[in-house]
Write a structure and sequence with these properties.
The chain is of the alpha/beta class and 1094 residues long. Among the domains are: 181 residues, Rossmann fold (3-Layer(aba) Sandwich); 75 residues, no CATH class; 190 residues, Rossmann fold (3-Layer(aba) Sandwich); 133 residues, PCRA, domain 4 (Orthogonal Bundle); 58 residues; 104 residues, Lambda Exonuclease, Chain A, CATH 3.90.320.10. The strands form 7 sheets. Strands 2-1-10-3-9-8-4-5 form an 8-stranded mixed sheet, with helices on both faces. The protein has a 7-stranded parallel sheet with strand order 15-18-14-19-22-13-23. A 5-stranded mixed sheet has the order 24-25-26-27-28.
């Protein structure tokens, strides 16, 4: 296991020679290094050597893919320099020799190494360690304005990290653009009719994630030729509007008739029956039905010729029909592709407009801008001079994750140095260090293309550099590495994997290493309907368990049991990783670990609203800003924030129903003695927080709720000990998000609640080093642990994708060779068969790359688990591959329960809350006066809310004073302001001019706060009414205004006219224009109805 593993330009070399070349900043190299080879160690060592050679910190550019990796590089560099500053001279010499210097040179440089730490601390500029996108952003800031304008980018654009935030608005603007264009509308209607509204929307929105490939393909004419028409592949279909028309050609039609007659003359029943079906198909008026009917008569559903049929010309007829059916698939794919292209272009235009209006640029914009700057003939020279003057060393980490566009930008810059005398640049090229491992390329969904690694090797060779390979790992124990070598040698022998070189490890490893397989969970025999019938289930207390969930839970419990056993034997929970390709398996495992009170953590980013604590607090905020939302209030009351019981909620519900009030009103109106201590506390706090919600920004309100409500202590006491740190972290994340979200622009709690519920906001989970780490394989990349479990290893990964885009982009090409929209990979047109096969091979390779990444995370012990699949996958699964490895230990049967003492921290005693005495306040702060404009606005909002509630009732005047009072409380009005609101509401509801819009024979329909999409924005109409008008109808758009003469203000008139136009657009095509009118009017505080002129 410790043989030769170092190569330079394919030749085996000693370890010392390998590191002499790899760490020499004067040489350009590409290093292909296996997992655990020390890629970051090599990269930072090369930075160290460059600094020793006198290169200034700011002249070193190190590029990686994540902020986390960049931070790790900075930390590693400064940590080393601090150590070298404090260590002995002899230790410095040893470290330099390990980094490729000969002993004499190391002694000369040792004093310089000791002073590097101080040099960097005193330097005004640091080493440039950036992500790809951070470097591209730096280039974009130097771009001329005309370039930014050409690319549709605003100057000083703010980086948009999550495009999902803009998709809803882009979609609304897209729908408006489609509705305004008859041809686009026809395309969209055809797409929705064929694929369904939701599928069509997702298919189109996914183009935003692939827009770089789409736009480059469009610019180079690739889109048009990606899915050609059937006639382009076979001249037999030239001149036909549809390939099925070929069935009417004399040659095909006569052949089919002859076959039908020959079969009909036979004496057996089967030929006669199929002859009748064939004859019936030929009489079909529709060409496509004729083809399908004829094919069904002669062939099975699987497409094979039917048995017991024999007639002259039968084989030729079947061949004709097959050919026509294939051409039909090509024809339909061509039409749908062209339709999608037209619609996608409009969607991307609207997406670009949304970005520009908000001053944003996404990651793809940075890449496009960098490529434009580095490839442009005029700009490239100017930019090259700037880069030549600034950068002497370029280092790129994890290069296998580079996408073709990033490589195009890099190669445009670095390739200019190729050739004698610095090539086209005429300058000495910088030292180039590229390191990565194609075997760990698992990010195709992020456009990573491992083929760029080969392109990088060629470029470095052209620059006079060397190509290095390291297959020696310091991470894995011999037993683990033997399994890795066995699995991938076998895959290579099957030609399922490319070149794989056996790995070696350090001699005298502290652990021999073990690979184990937990007994697979077998799928039971399929039950009959009667056997599968379940008894009655109380759905309120007994959750539904699907059979598949139970199987997955059984696997998870086996894994959890073995983890508990290892912990009982002295293994720390933090030494254990559990990996899975899908998060679903990890969620089930979390439940199993929770049952055993074992601590666990999910270090990867998670969706904030998935946390129960966050949902509780958001429900509380919703109840505060919308008191009529009884469900949100019930949620908050039942949560640990208040700790109300089921009996408390039942009593409150009964009181609300008896009084015809909402829960918030019922809680406020019940006598003190009728409330439990939990509800008494809730009423006191809710009343105070509702007042605070009217005057405090969201973060300050949340901060007060957390403090006054003792949320941290209450959740710490309520949740199991193993979940305590995560619960508190979620509360902190919500507080931070309220301040950081969109620059804190959500000025009211109501808007914050809407943003939290509308957007899938993610938060970075805190790492708990003392807990079992639950990670996806992608999330575990770059990490390692003594013990690694891999779950769900016998599942299929070859399911065909639907409504997707098939893209082929060779690394050396300036744009994709193919960009094709396909509805299903199970039915691709013949023109795309080769592209799809190449894509499947790439996915199969990446599937094995995922196995490589997962296995090489384990230092000492590697454990596999699995559940038997529904169907046997076409490709061999991870479970099957590891099952063939000799020496794998079988962990049979259920794991024995761990002793209670070893159950981990979760078995600790429950947390007890202690009350501190209240701190007396020196003085109460005087509340600032509220500006008159703000007061008037709040009165207007209360009137709007009251009219919204009242006009929705059969009798708007029934209980109107109580309703106005509730609205007044919601907006914090004092008695005089409430009286003013009552006066306005009464004038409106009793107005003769307004009465037709409330009730009467002419009233057909009415709605309040009606949402409408217009111009890419959502508008809300105060009241929309449909009145009968002879044979037709009138639509009235009503806008409540407290002003006595709102029609005199131009801004109000423009706003109402916009509402009216939005209603007209919404009604377009739904009702005859001759019989419908759309009118608009203001409803003033005096009850007057003032119509807006047409």
């Amino acid at each position: 296991m410790n043989g030769a593993a170092y190569r330079v330009d394919s030749a085996l070399v000693a370890r010392e020679e390998f590191y002499r070349i790899a760490c020499d900043p004067a040489r350009s190299v590409v290093v292909e290094a296996c997992a655990g080879a020390g890629k970051t160690w090599m990269l930072v060592s090369r930075i160290l050597r460059a600094l020793l050679d006198g290169v200034e910190p700011q002249q070193i550019l190190a590029i990686t893919f994540t902020k986390k990796a960049a931070a790790e590089m900075r930390h590693r560099l400064m940590q080393w320099l601090a150590q070298f500053a404090a260590c002995s001279e002899e230790q410095r010499v040893q470290e330099l020799v390990a980094r490729g210097l000969d002993p004499a040179a190391a002694r000369r440089q040792a004093p310089v190494l000791g002073g590097l730490y101080e040099r960097l601390l005193c330097s005004p500029q640091a080493v440039e360690i950036r992500t790809f996108h951070a470097w591209f952003s730096q280039l974009m800031r130097a771009a001329p304005l005309e370039v930014l304008d050409e690319l549709g980018l605003p100057p000083q654009a703010e980086l948009l990290e999550d495009v999902e935030e803009l998709k809803p608005q882009a979609w609304r603007q897209f729908l408006a653009a489609v509705a305004a264009d008859e041809a686009l509308r026809a395309d969209f209607e055809a797409l929705v009719l064929q694929r369904g509204r939701h599928t069509a929307q997702q298919w189109l929105l996914n183009v935003i994630d692939k827009r770089v490939e789409f736009e480059l393909a469009a610019r180079h004419g690739v889109l048009e030729r990606s899915v050609p028409p059937a006639a382009a592949l076979d001249a037999a279909y030239a001149g036909l509007s549809h390939p099925a028309q070929r069935v009417r050609s004399p040659a095909v039609a006569s052949l089919l008739r002859e076959v039908a007659q020959a079969l009909g003359r036979q004496g057996k029943a089967t030929p006669q029956k199929q002859a009748a079906l064939l004859q019936q198909a030929l009489e079909e008026a529709d060409d496509l039905r004729c083809v399908e009917g004829a094919f069904a008569a002669l062939c099975t559903k699987a497409g094979e010729p039917r048995k017991h049929l024999d007639a002259p010309g039968l084989d030729e007829a079947v061949a004709f029909l097959r050919d026509i059916r294939v051409a039909v698939v090509q024809h339909e794919a061509h039409l749908e592709h062209q339709r999608m292209v037209r619609l996608a272009q409009v969607l991307l235009e609207q997406y670009a407009r949304v970005k520009r209006a908000r001053g944003l640029a996404d990651m793809a914009d940075l890449e496009r801008c960098a490529l434009r700057l580095l490839q442009d003939v005029q700009l490239a020279g100017w930019l090259q001079e700037r880069l030549d003057a600034r950068i002497r060393q370029v280092l790129i980490d994890e290069f296998q994750d580079t996408n073709p566009l990033q490589w195009q930008a890099l190669s445009s810059w670095l390739g200019s140095y190729a050739g004698a005398g610095g090539g086209a640049s005429g300058q000495q090229p910088p030292g180039i260090f590229i390191v990565g491992d194609p075997k760990q390329s698992i990010y195709r969904f992020r456009r990573a293309e491992p083929r760029v690694f080969d392109a990088a090797k060629e470029l470095v060779r052209e620059l006079g550099g060397a190509v290095l390979a390291c297959d020696h790992t310091r991470r894995n124990a011999p037993g683990v590495l033997e399994a890795v070598n066995a699995v991938f040698r076998a895959a290579q022998d099957e030609r399922a994997y490319g070149e794989f070189r056996a790995h070696t490890t350090e001699p005298g490893h502290a652990h021999a290493g073990e690979v184990a397989a937990i007994e697979r969970v077998e799928r039971p025999a399929k039950e009959t309907a009667e056997e599968g019938e379940a008894g009655w289930r109380d759905s309120l207390v007994t959750p539904r368990h699907e059979p598949e969930v139970l199987l997955r839970l059984q696997e998870a419990r086996r894994v959890a049991g073995h983890i508990a056993r290892l912990v009982a034997q002295g293994r720390r929970p933090g030494d254990i990783f559990v990996l899975s390709r899908k998060r679903a398996s990890l969620r089930v495992l979390a439940e199993a670990l929770r049952e055993l009170h074992l601590p666990f953590a999910t270090p990867e980013d998670s969706v904030l609203m998935d946390a129960l604590e966050v949902r509780d607090v958001v429900a509380l905020l919703d109840a505060l800003v919308s008191p009529q939302h009884d469900l949100s209030l019930a949620h908050a009351l039942r949560s640990p924030i208040f700790g109300a019981s089921d009996a408390d909620l039942v009593a409150l519900a009964q009181a609300a129903r008896a009084g015809g009030r909402g829960w918030m009103q019922a809680l406020a109106g019940l006598p003190e003695e009728a409330l439990s201590p939990a509800l008494q506390r809730a009423r006191r706090l809710l009343a105070a927080w509702r007042e605070d919600a009217l005057r405090l920004p969201p973060h300050d309100l949340l901060d007060r709720i957390v403090a006054q409500g003792e949320l941290r202590a209450r959740y710490a006491a309520a949740v199991p000990a193993e979940l305590r740190s995560a619960a508190l972290a979620h509360l902190d994340a919500l507080l931070a998000l309220a301040l950081e979200l969109d620059g804190g622009r959500y000025a009211t709690p109501y808007k914050l609640v809407r943003a939290l519920r509308r957007r899938p906001l993610s938060v970075k989970s805190r790492t708990d080093a003392q807990a079992v780490q639950l990670l996806t394989v992608h999330g575990a990349k770059g990490l390692e642990a003594p013990v690694v479990f891999i779950m769900d290893t016998d599942s299929a990964s070859d399911r065909p994708e639907r409504t997707t885009a098939l893209i082929d982009w060779p690394a050396e090409a300036a744009c994709p060779d193919c960009f094709a929209f396909i509805a299903s990979e199970a039915r691709v047109p013949p023109s795309l068969a080769a592209v799809l096969e190449h894509e499947r091979q790439a996915r199969a390779r990446e599937e094995l790359n995922g196995l490589y990444v997962a296995m090489t995370r384990a230092r000492e012990q590697l454990v596999f688990s699995a559940t038997a699949p529904h169907r046997r996958p076409s490709e061999r699964t991870w479970w099957e591959r590891i099952g063939e490895v000799p020496g794998v230990v079988r962990w049979e049967g259920e794991p024995e329960p761990a002793p209670a003492a070893a159950a981990g921290p979760g078995a600790a005693a429950p947390l007890v809350l202690c009350e501190l005495p209240a701190l007396p306040r020196a003085a109460e702060a005087v509340a600032p006066s509220v500006p008159q404009a703000a007061t008037t606005a709040r009165v207007g909002e209360a009137v709007h809310r009251a009219l919204e509630w009242l006009t929705a009732r059969p009798d708007p005047l029934d209980g109107w004073r109580e309703t106005v009072a509730a609205a007044a409380r919601a907006f914090g009005l004092d008695d005089s302001q409430r009286a003013h609101a009552e006066h306005v509401v009464a004038r409106v509801l009793t107005s003769d001019a307004f009465r037709p819009f409330l009730a009467g024979e002419r009233l057909r329909w009415a709605g309040n706060e009606v949402p409408l999409a217009h111009g890419g924005q959502v508008l809300r109409v105060d009241r929309l009414v449909q009145l009968a008008d002879g044979e037709g109808c009138q639509w009235w758009v009503l806008d409540y205004k407290l002003d006595h003469a709102p029609h005199e203000l131009a801004a109000y008139r423009e706003q109402l006219a916009r509402y009216r136009e939005a209603v007209r657009e919404a009604l377009a095509g739904r009702e005859p224009h001759a019989q419908v009118q759309v009118r608009a009017a203001f409803v003033t505080g005096r009850g007057e109805v003032i119509e807006l002129p047409a």
